[in-house]
Amino acid sequence: MRFQLLAVGQKMPHWVSEGYAEYEKRMPPECPLQLKEIPAAKRGKQVNIRQWQDEEAERLLTAIPAQAHVVALDQHGKSWSTEALALQIQQWMTLGQDIALLVGGPDGLSEAVRQRANQVWSLSPLTLPHPLVRVVLAEQLYRAMMILRNHPYHK
Q1: pTM for this one?
Q2: What is the DSSP letter of 149?
Q3: Which of 14, 20, 120, 151 has the most Cβ atoms closer than 10 angstroms to its Cβ?
Q4: Which residues contact 145 (CB under 8 A, 6 or more apart)?
């Protein structure tokens, strides 16, 4: 099983790229984490959030690997403790599918993306900046994998 992180936004600050890369390289070989950056919609002077979300949704939905189990990250989704995430990963492993984790841009995900998702997951009830989500998500996936391996990282 592979984790495919599809995240809107490119050219992240150095600290985001560095933080994400650290946990990406720590992931066990049987469950690698791969990032695919999706170009954000071009924002102009006129605010049209729905149009921007729709453009980004089209790019995200097109990038989903065939046969992947889709998990959209949205603050209104279901929240899991780290231990519950570890159990969720065990369940995902039984599916025999890759897991596509979808992270929206600054304006979040469109309804079309949430509808396409097999699951909607909330990292926090807080509104997190979308670049930070990459780092938090990578760390939590790594931590959950270490729980499954009885590794002391989680302690």
Answers
A1: 0.92
A2: T
A3: 20
A4: 27, 28, 31, 86, 89
